[in-house]
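Many introductory courses stop at the sequence. We go one step further.
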Amino acid sequence: MPHALTTKGQVTIPKHIRDALHLQPGTAVEFTVNAQGEVVLHPVANPGVRSAGPADRFDAVRGAADIRWRTDELMKLLRADD
């Protein structure tokens, strides 16, 4: 069954292929083109720097700030007249 390409260049991977490759949301994949001109989809076992990331988007930045602001200092800074 053919699948239409979106204006963003996206296409849905059919469920039977996702199931066969054990692809879950957030799984890193890699596309290659073989000698016959066919596109081959490979799940990436060790995506290296890229990963699915934390389940909660806030976990990605939690504890990343290196400045400890006190609430009153921050509010004074944000409300200061220029």
